[in-house]
Amino acid sequence: MIAFRALAPADIEVFSEAISVFFENMTRRSAQVRTAYLLEASVPIVWDDFNGLIMVSSGFRGTITFSAPRALLDEVLKAMGEPCKSTENYLDVVGEIANQLSGRARRHFGEALDISPPVSCERAGFEVSSVASGPAYAIPLTWDTHEAHLVVHLDVNSRR
Predict the structure, then answer these.
(1) Structural domain count, the chain
(2) Distance in Å from the first CA to the final CA of the chain
(3) Do residues 26 and 120 touch, judged by C-beta distance below 8 A?
(4) What is the CATH number of the domain that holds 94?
(5) Mapping DSSP to helix (H, G, I), strand (E, B) and coil, where does residue 119 land?
């Protein structure tokens, strides 16, 4: 049986750095990542219009969710050269952002971080159920003039 531990501050920093690198590489404009904070709700809260969720397993358990408002995604699509602002494109880009952030975390944590394909959906009716028992952290960011959040709710194999 695998024993798990909650994320450590150094683990949270990996996700904060991944956000900065993603926005710089994809849009050539930096995101201002603010201090992560502990969510007090029993289930991680997702605030924004569109959400990309990655389930993780193996030496980890839980979820990584990128949550963004429509206006931020409009600007990201524009910076990526995509002129079409559609629900389908919003869902694609928010899922891709979640996937890229998870992939960067996987490079740090190693192959034991087994990530699922992203699940993207709109805010309405979106519920996050996580198998993680440790606390969930929100990492707020501002890009351009828009705020978004990365919600990390993971337990880590305590042997790491």
Answers:
(1) 1
(2) 15
(3) no
(4) 3.40.1550.10
(5) strand
CA distance 68 to 82: 17
Task: Please state the φ and ψ torsions of residue 126, each to the nearest 5 degrees.
Answer: -85, 120
Range of the domain at 110: 4-157
How high is the mean pLDDT of the chain? Answer: 85
| Beta carbons of 7 and 130 less than 8 angstroms apart | no
* Closest C-alpha among 156, 153, 155 to residue 138: 153
Q: pLDDT digits over 65-108, tens only?
A: 999 999 999 999 998 898 889 999 999 999 999 888 888 888 88
C-alpha closest to that of 37 among 158, 110, 140: 140
What gap in Å lies between CA 77 and CA 114, rounded to an integer? 28
Which tokens go with 51?
A: 């959400």
The token pair that represents 62 in the structure block: 């839980």
Q: Is the Cβ–Cβ distance between 46 and 125 less than 8 Å?
A: no
